[in-house]
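Hi all, a correction to my earlier message: I attached the wrong file for Probable phosphoketolase. Here's the right sequence:
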Amino acid sequence: MINLTSLEIDNIHAYWQAANYLAVGQIYLQDNPLLNEPLRPEHIKPRLLGHWGTSPGLSFIYVHLNRLIKNTGADILYVCGPGHGAPGVVAHTYLEGTYSEIYPNVTQDERGMRHLFRQFSTPGGIPSHLSADIPGSIHEGGELGYSLVHAFGAAFDNPGLLVACIVGDGEAETGPLEASWKSIAFLNPVRDGAVLPILHLNGYKISGPTVLSRMSDIKLEQLFNGHGYDVLFVEGNNPAVVHRQMAGILDEAYRRIKLIQDHARQGNPLPCNRWPIIILRTPKGWTGPKEWNGIPIEDTFRSHQVPLTGVKEDPKKLKALEDWMLSYRPERLFDKKGKLLPELAALAPEGNKRMSALPYANGGLLLKELHLPEFRKYAVSLTAPGVTEAESTRNLGKYLRDVFSLNQETNNFRLFCPDETTSNRLEAVFEVTNRCSMQTINPADDKLANDGRVMEVLSEHLCEGWLEGYLLTGRHGLFPCYEAFVTIVDSMVSQHAKWLKTAHGLPWRKPVASLNYLLTSHVWRQDNNGYSHQGPGFIDTVVNKKSAVVRIYLPPDANTLLSVMDHCLRSKDYVNVVIAGKQPELQWLTMPEAIDHCALGASEWKWAGNMANEQPDVILGCAGDVPTLEAVAAAWILKQYMPELKVRLVNVMDLMSLSPVAYHPHGMSDELFNTLFTNTAPVIFAFHGYVRIIHDLIHGRPDPARFHVRGYMEEGTTTTPFDMVVLNKMSRYHLAMEAVKRVPHMHQQADAFISYCEGKLKEHAAYICANLDDLPEIKNWKWTN
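and the right structure:
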């Protein structure tokens, strides 16, 4: 045990008490912050919100990490899993001065303390959980499960960083957190920082016990030894004893981390040492009310949120709150003006060593631009549209290979992918890097190495969380994923989008690299997998987020994919979703055409139309590579069989361009929209996803009811590519029939054409059952004039 003097223990305890006092004040008080007069009902907030139970434990850890920083000069990032413990963390950001530097109206005096209390969980203030508003934070905490994976993402490629991650015992019951323990299998002590998990067992969730808190120390040690950790315990309820324990164990954990790193960085074989984990057992609501009317509060679930309710109305409870706050002896913590006493303030680190001022927690300060290759040199050469075939993602793989090569010195780019890099035709990256693993590597393994920069693990949660932590600490990355299974992280992307939206309103938060998704193996081409892998719902999740944040791109071919991905990797503070197939497919645009098309977001493909500079009778719209194929083929069929029908084809690459400009920054002007889609012509629109999205986006456009949308209708199975579009009534024949039906002056000729199309669909159904493949005229179709 470390030999701290009694004075050192007293000062650490006093600093902790100051933070606890501020935490209680944030939950309860709107006035009289220093208790200079007896508490009265008007001093109490009208609505009592916030979480007390976890706050004293989080604050206890914070003050001890401060001591470690002061003694070692370490850069420590504080990642707080129990996000509703914000009162305890906000208190520390205020005590060490950062909060007042960022928010000058929250001054280091009685007036500022009053403002600190009044703003917490009130209109126009800050939320009850950690958020982008709080300096030093990269982790929202409003939804449990992601703290540890964010911590590892922050540590990757940051060799000088120690991430202290506080995992609540309620959070430890979630699936993503349980998967996150495996992250040490990817943490390289030579090039990465370290993560110190601190599992805080205070016993209870909202109304019941937690699983891990009821396990014995022996079982906990066995569990985490199995995960690969070396367990260090701190437990008790006597502050003086627990302070000494925590100081000694924290120093020991740091010593072991440095030994592992120093051994590896001196060129020795990579160690098999276990990384340390601290398991801290303290009472729920520690230092709070012990009981009320004989019912225990401290060390029970009753201290989880607001331990004493109704204090504004009940004089006895009001007196109990006053006694609780006075038990911290604020007169021995703050001077008469409300400023923390100098001998206590000296316990906090200074400048950027403060955890609330650490540059890693404001990653835009550290962001270095990616060196990107000239994407045009990876172009697919075309002699004519709709003739050449290529695998769009395979060309992108070559581009990404060179992104890795150009950024070898900065090492600030990684792929995070659920074991699908090769499957998604991005294997060119393995010419210059490998898959990462710190476990045993066998001779038969392929492209596996300790220093690999492709992070493959069969957990979408880990890929997403690692990438988020990596981005928020100032780096760049890409998340390629099967489209159907990226929905596993729906709530994670929602939380990240909310973080970005909040950060946009904070001038001190510097822009970070965008969260980039490449969704392939998509809904329309699941030849090996079938119905379970057919789901385009991620678009629905993302499209509803704040327009300042989200972008959705559906490049129809390889050249547009290259152009848009280059744009996404250069962008900042967005969530970019790019959806592109990996199968061989027809290519439509030369690179110059693709660049122009991407810049506009949507454009008319005049070569596919049949208008002769006249106004169209009908418009075929499309968004997505397979819908584009079917729409172009429908235009071709109409040219052959209904040449007098004037058809325009419009391809939409940037989905949000359909929206009015008032609703999204990428929205088309009314003038451009009307130029493409006219004011009156019927529009048959083939869409990659669920049809409702298009109807929502065009709301507010002229006569939106004229848009007839075909898309995914939850019809699927293991079948041929063309049968997928037939099952969902988005085939070229369905589109062509609908186009003819929507033009009144074509009705006399419609019956024969519709009979032809229906006959082709019957022929298709019979052929695939007999031959297990698509009709040659479908499979081998190419555009001809």
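Sorry for the mix-up. The longest strand covers residues 161-168.
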